[in-house]
Specification:
27 strands, alpha/beta, about 450 residues, eight-stranded parallel beta sheet, Glutaconate Coenzyme A-transferase, eight-stranded mixed beta sheet, 2 domains
Length: about 450
């Protein structure tokens, strides 16, 4: 860890005085999810008319951002985002937000090697502790990297965060320039909708592939959380956790005694993650819990780290897959909807693990304007971004089955994926596969 040294002892100032440090043309960084500041954000929004061309990086906003709400025409502020929430997606649609492509575990390196020093970094943290540290709470991510690159570092204290143990999960007062008072509101919650029948059908197949002692990564959404519920019902034992996002589903497994991590090569007995996002009970379970280890994202997400735990299992969603096995998980054509996140890195890291498996799951159909459409397609929607390439794809799961694409030819892949499509679309997909020579005529695959 590179330690930043502030030019003078940290000074307490008001949010409005902190916002006065911002000048037109500056780059600011608001960090990741729950760590995005609120009182500073409101004070900055109040200065909108005085400023122009202020650019702000952040990731996965969990609530509306005051600086954007105060500037509906985008004349003063512009947002650059590493992963979209629903709110960020709407800002992108309105032309006020732009996506930054990434592999999430590489972001600290982007800051250290390729991004210019940041004019002002503002981080929401726990209040200063007895050792002079401002704990980052449930979000570590690339905070240390942006601190190293900060020309001015401001922390916004809140009593609404759990105090979370981890590696480099905090910043010392000697590195901080200014301290401002937060609103001390409880950490924002993210509630997943209850799993659907399709989610349960997919989850049942995946849960049957997770052995005692497996080390799991769970993505966001109803399907992955349904897997956790079914694992709990199955009585699986000795599960380890090395994940990007810590979810309610994983905490439920932990509370049920299914998670011990005893067989992990790295950090045995610890639940390893880089950010937590979910309900208040999730945050309560983290508070001063020595079983939890909140780590920098380059540790949680890099494939060469992930692979060191045997039997690594990654479970992630996609929204569309073509007949060659390319998964598009982050856009709808040219409309960006989420982000690459760590999906590809966990697919690669789990495959490289001894006994490891990666699962990409999806419902076979979706509805758009009252019309049912297939998520399994000959060609991805024009403009869609490939999140996981065909060469990396392992298990694909829908409510109609599960296939392993490793070692399969294009023709075998096409046949296997057609079998995962909704029956209504299979004949059409098969016809298209023959017409486009994905499947050669006269060859039998048994």
């Amino acid at each position: 860890m590179t330690k930043r040294v502030a030019k003078a002892p940290a000074r307490r100032i008001s949010p409005s005085d902190a916002a006065k440090l911002v000048q037109s043309g500056m780059w600011l960084d608001f960090a990741v999810t729950l760590s995005q500041p609120d009182t500073f954000d409101k004070a900055l929004a109040a200065r909108a008319a005085e400023l122009a061309d202020v650019k702000i990086r952040s990731c996965l906003s969990v609530k509306p951002r005051a600086f954007l709400e105060a500037d509906p025409d985008g004349k003063h502020f512009y947002s650059f985002n590493w992963h979209f929430s629903g709110y960020d997606r709407l800002q992108h649609d309105a032309g006020r937000c732009n996506y930054i492509p990434l592999n999430l575990g590489e972001v600290p390196d982007y800051y250290r090697r390729f991004i210019d020093p940041i004019d002002i970094v503002v981080l929401k943290t726990c209040p200063i502790d007895e050792n002079g540290f401002f704990n980052f709470g449930p979000t570590n991510a690339w905070h240390r990297a942006i601190i190293e690159r900060a020309k001015i570092l401001i922390v916004e204290e809140t009593r609404g965060f759990p105090y979370v143990f981890g590696e480099d999960n905090g910043v010392h007062a000697s590195e901080v320039d200014f301290i401002i008072e937060g609103d001390h509101a409880p950490a924002a919650e993210l509630h997943n909708p209850p799993p659907s029948d399709v989610d349960h059908a997919v989850a049942r197949q995946i849960a049957g592939e997770v052995d005692d002692g497996a080390c799991i990564q769970i993505g966001i959404g109803g399907m992955p959380n349904a897997v956790c519920a079914l694992l709990q019902e199955s009585g699986v034992k000795g599960v380890g956790v090395h994940t990007e996002m810590l979810t309610d589903g994983i905490i439920d497994l932990y509370k049920a005694g299914c998670v011990t991590g005893a067989g992990k090569t790295l950090d045995p007995g610890k639940v390893v993650f880089t950010f937590a996002l979910g309900s208040a009970r999730l945050y309560a379970a983290l508070d001063r819990n020595r079983d939890m280890l909140c780590c920098p994202v380059e540790y949680t997400n890099m494939p060469n780290i992930i692979m060191q735990n045997d039997n690594a299992v990654s479970i992630n969603n996609t929204t569309q897959i073509d007949l060659q096995g390319q998964a598009a998980s982050e856009s709808d054509g040219h409309r960006h909807i989420s982000g690459t996140g760590g999906q590809l890195q966990f697919v690669r890291g789990s495959y490289a693990s001894r006994g490891g498996k990666s699962f990409i799951c999806l419902s076979s159909t979706y509805e758009k304007k009252g019309v049912r459409k297939s998520r399994v397609v000959l060609d991805l929607t024009q403009g869609n971004i490939v999140t996981t390439p065909r060469s990396d794809m392992m298990y694909v799961v829908t409510e109609y089955g599960m296939v392993n694409l490793k070692g399969k030819s294009v023709a075998e892949r096409a046949r296997a994926l057609i079998g995962l499509a909704h029956p209504e679309f299979r004949a059409g997909l098969e016809r298209e596969a023959y017409e486009n020579r994905l499947i050669p005529r006269g060859v039998s695959f048994g």
